Amino acid sequence: MIMKAKTFILLLCSLALARSVAAQQIMSWDEAYRQADSMIGRLTLDQKIAMMRGYDKFFLPGVPEAGIPYVFTSDATQGLRLNLNLPDPTMVRQIERSTAFPAPIMLAATFSPELAHRYARGVGEECRASGVEVLLGPGMNIYRNSQCSRNFEYLGEDPFLAARMVEAYVTGMQSTGTLACLKHFLANNTEWYRRRSNSIVDERAIREIYTPAFVAGIEAGAATVMTAYNRLNGEWCGQSRQVITDLLRGEFGFRGAVMSDWRSIYDWRKVVESGQNIDMPGEDYFYLTSDIRSLVDRGEITERQIEDMIRPTIATSIAFGLYDRILSGDKYRPELTDSLPAHVRTSYDVAAEGTVLLRNNGILPLRDTSRNILLTGRWIDELPRGGGAARVEGYDIVTPRAALSRLGRVTVSPKPSDEELRSADVVIITTGTYDTEGVERPFAMPKADERAVRRAVELNPNTIVIVNSGSGIDMTAWSDRCAALVYGWYPGQNGYDAIADILAGRVNPSGKLPMTIECSFADSPACGTMPHGASFYDRVRNEHFIMPYDVVYEESVLVGYRWYEYRNIEPLFPFGYGLSYTTFSIDKPQAVGGSKLSGNDTATIRVRIRNTGDRRGKEVIQLYIGEDCPTVVRPPKELKGIRKIELDPQQSASVEFTLSKRDFAFWDADSHSWRTNPGDYTIYIGSSSADIACTLKLTIK
Known about the structure:
With about 700 residues, the protein is α/β, with parallel strands linked by helices. The chain folds into three domains: about 1-75 and about 110-340, Glycoside hydrolase, family 3, N-terminal domain (TIM Barrel), CATH 3.20.20.300; about 350-525 and about 560-580, 3-Layer(aba) Sandwich (Rossmann fold), CATH 3.40.50; about 580-700, Immunoglobulin-like. The protein is built from 19 helices and 27 strands.
């Protein structure tokens, strides 16, 4: 009880500190742009050119002698990545440690926008303490391809789920005064020589699948956007007028600063015409050979174009008070490190609600502590985590050995004999993949890990498999032979405490898959993405010798569960799936106010859910919509509502969803606009995309 009280007090302190440093947009965009023009008018041409490019690898450009300070950015995703390799480390005063949170794919598996807000607020507070003005996240590229080794940084395959998590993340992050950066715009869904890939995507898929999360982030107030490495329909995103000016700024109304991903632009003339604002990191590199000043002298770039390019960078820093903060000496808020215990609690809560129980033959929870448990596998004394720019070291790391040894009589054996496996009452084996940016990794696990799992389930039917990975893997050879299967993702510095509590029954699992796990990669619409002769784990080297290659999104809007349902392909585990230690029932829904929708009306769908089991638990009620007689190819159903609710045994509650006509719409490629057909639609409500408890008909007039 004392520990719970302390945790509650720490959470209250965290909330109070967040309110005290809140720095949402403090000035209108129009006024910020007027002040930016005034600043630009005092700059020389060379100073304006300096404002086009980043500084010292991780700083947005500045002209200190003109009163424009450098703005510090930092890598993100699994928390604040402390940057110890800056060319000039004296430019910042970083905190000594930062929390290693669970990977965003695990955050998505919670289906909880409230946790997304807490998660981002915690990361934002650590940024503020460390003097980081812009966090280079959240990432929100759609999970199209299970072999993409950066999926762990993103929020799954469904645009609705990703949008709800992103808007909560942005508001949580920016409530601390740290600016969010939405990345990577647009259609960066493969990592094999990502600077050479050309994503060929139709306009329906762009609007319906690949941009809703970005739009949600923009509407939530995100201050910055990062463009992607890849080409989109023939032009690199970082220098594409169609991507930046027409789509991001024109259609979506974004007014903040746009930066390139690191070393991803090639033609300065195209850059200044595209709407791009900052070349990051700003250093000279192989691809970018043109000298800006010489282009100006030759009249290929005008000074006015340079002013247009740098204006949003300055206006964004003004609008969010960054320059005033830095110049007034308020750059660092070290007192926010007092919130670290609350961040650790948030990290635990995300892992507890994001761990997904995929199979359980009754072995879980492990209530009998007298049984002999053998712990083996890939992860025993090392914390599973993703790599690259997303890697966060963390502190006070809880290893699988430390957490799982609390389950009872546990023997640890990295390479057990056959007899050890056979004689154990329970075997727990940890397995999975190491995912990191810049490579594709196979759908199959490494051969040694696959052999170890197969051997364990063959020798002992009471084997519990814990998978730590950033996306789906091939589990068809053993998933139905293990006693229990737990998807633990990359769970953060104390996530194995949460996993151990789930195995012991102290926590009731409530995580849901934010993506579909296919039986075979041959079933995936992304099969064939990598060009002929390409190798997995191919590190980026001599990239300029790789010929640009096309990634054709032939499936269009049929991504994830949409694809598998439309094609009648049964996956290994469906989107939205996850087991609990209790059971729930969902009553037939009702359309409050009638089942016909016309004009600008909204429809309210009410449904009652009951915990029919014998212990308290959380369930995610998922609402999908399908058009009965579509005029174009549409998925059988699409997610349009989520509610996570906690109920005591035999307790019931009503849940409501409000739907507008836009929720029923598709992007009409002929009129280049959203269109909602009149006619009949079916509302599907259930606990996963494949487990629909009840339906309701609704008519659009």
